[in-house]
Amino acid sequence: MKTQVTIKDIAKALNISPSTVSRALKDHPDISQKTKDAVNKIAAELDYHPNTIAQSLRKSRSNTIGVVVPELVHHFFASVISGIEDIAYKAGYRVVICQTNEDVTREKINISALISSRVDGVLCSMTKETKEYSHFKSIQNRNIPLIFFDRICNEIKADSVVVQDYEGAYEAVEHLIEQGCKRIAHFKGPDSLLITRQRLNGYYDAMRESHLQIDEDLIIQADDRESARKAIYDLVKSEEPMPDGIFCVNDNVAVGAMMQLREMGINVPREVKIVGFEDDTTFTRLTDPQISSVFQPAFEMGQRATEMFLDELKRKEAHPEKILEPKTPRIEVLKTKVVVRGSSNEQVAQQERARRNYLENV
Amino acid sequence: MKTQVTIKDIAKALNISPSTVSRALKDHPDISQKTKDAVNKIAAELDYHPNTIAQSLRKSRSNTIGVVVPELVHHFFASVISGIEDIAYKAGYRVVICQTNEDVTREKINISALISSRVDGVLCSMTKETKEYSHFKSIQNRNIPLIFFDRICNEIKADSVVVQDYEGAYEAVEHLIEQGCKRIAHFKGPDSLLITRQRLNGYYDAMRESHLQIDEDLIIQADDRESARKAIYDLVKSEEPMPDGIFCVNDNVAVGAMMQLREMGINVPREVKIVGFEDDTTFTRLTDPQISSVFQPAFEMGQRATEMFLDELKRKEAHPEKILEPKTPRIEVLKTKVVVRGSSNEQVAQQERARRNYLENV
Lengths: 362, 362
Prior knowledge:
Two copies of one chain form a homodimer.
Chain A: H1 7-14, H2 18-25, H3 33-46, H4 52-59, E1 64-69, H5 75-90, E2 94-99, H6 104-116, E3 121-124, H7 134-141, E4 146-149, E5 159-163, H8 165-178, E6 184-188, H9 194-209, E7 219-221, H10 225-237, E8 245-248, H11 251-263, E9 273-277, H12 281-284, E10 292-295, H13 298-317, E11 331-334, E12 337-339, H14 346-360
Parallel strand pairs in A: 1-2, 1-3, 3-4, 4-5, 5-11, 6-7, 6-8, 8-9, 9-10
Antiparallel strand pairs in A: 10-12
Helix pairs in contact in A: 1-2, 1-3, 5-13, 6-7, 8-9, 10-11
């Protein structure tokens, strides 16, 4: 038994030529509406699916966008993907997603697989560990548009979308200073990622411009809940005075820091104020106090990355025979905004708690 | 300039025949180790990627598993995917993921796309809206293994993996009864999903076996935070007495219900006790009180589904020429377990709170 229905099967059923069927399926003007209707009816009945592998071999197009992200458990990346799909589906593209689990080898395998299956473009957010970039070059060497988002790669000339990481960090630290913090720590991400270097720079500049002393011992690498807990534990146990504010590289770090502070008997926000960088609104509003955070437009980031891919595809298709260098790589920067909740402001924390106690004792 | 390096390029560089290169790349015993080493070296230098489209056209294999899930923002599905990848990568398969956003049309498009790109298998969790199943039949008609997980399809003969939805629900309601609840509501999912029907049945049977009266007005469809909030609002505003326990179809519903109860001045767990069904441990432990929930092994579900695919592939490859009916579809059922936290037990809630207050006032 045959496993795939082909154009020949449809032609046979209607007693017309395969090329007529092919043109009818493509809505070619030379074919009568009556024939087109008959062909489409039989195609549906026989459950015909065009063989896109054979097609893409001929026209070197698969109508597929490959997306490579570190981890799908991060709400942030799931939102970016929804933004990508929003634009992609409207433009007639489907989206396949690969996850690297922060593993460079898997990033390379995924990208090699996407190249081999002839995707029309790759949208990528690198792993924390990526320090060698030949797999990205491989994409570009084949004239396949490559767009970075969020965790971009300065070493490769490619269009990219980021948020105002520097500005968001600057404003978060400025906000902590306005709340009276003088000894502010930064729980930072790995130095390999541009976004974490930008956030670190925002921290430095905000501290300097307020003439606050920067204690390098308070700049600690901690980018998940567990490492944040450990960093707090070490700070409490050390001989040095505790920080009175912490700017965290993401919300998970902020949650971990707050839980550990609480368990060690330190009040947030009275004794230590905390601001995170948004990755998941589903939990920043569940804690007591709720967590202040730098909002970033994830859905919009996905939309913009996909629009950049479509632009780049148009440019490359005008010159299919040569590899085009990206002119001057475009970097689109999306706006961030500090959202103040109870973890960085005592009055807001009291309001959050008063509202709750009032409601519970009505 | 050429965009893809081929076997011919390698052959030319080494001045040997393309078929020698091809066999060297496949580690064929007729080719000397010296030649193999030379070929592999040049292949790496030229950045050669095998053209899997052409290959899969020849051998009808792509070494790719397609995964179709409703929504990646659910932590549960992200964990299942990690389990799938765990087994798939070890077996030499790569994984591409498509998301349906609970939209049947997108489910059909994604599946059609996966069929067209010749995936070796499809692992699927249906949308809430799927009530017509021809796209699943399309997969099976092509002899492509189809495995369902979590949201399975009783109307299609296919292997599948679920958790003990009935038993988990039964135990959750039994737990509420043990806590003294007599008037227990169920916030249920859509009737189209087998898992929500199973959880409803568990609720019914636990109520019946304890000889508690079932009030059909307390069985309310609410499967996200917002609909849970509305259901609570309606219950509080109605003339009828409030329920003293609620078994929620998932944790998001439990969070929505608890937040709304609190805002309307009703104490959880004193006045109303709540149990959810696990989808995201990142937030059930952040609330005050923490949320009791039925644990389900998501990672293991992904592993088992992938192992079932590998078994099914073996069986089908033994008979490539015919479409095999699944013998008797296997349904693997994974164990669930009620995890008691403060939302369903006053003593535990007091412990959670006492621990916090003590720590904050040290």
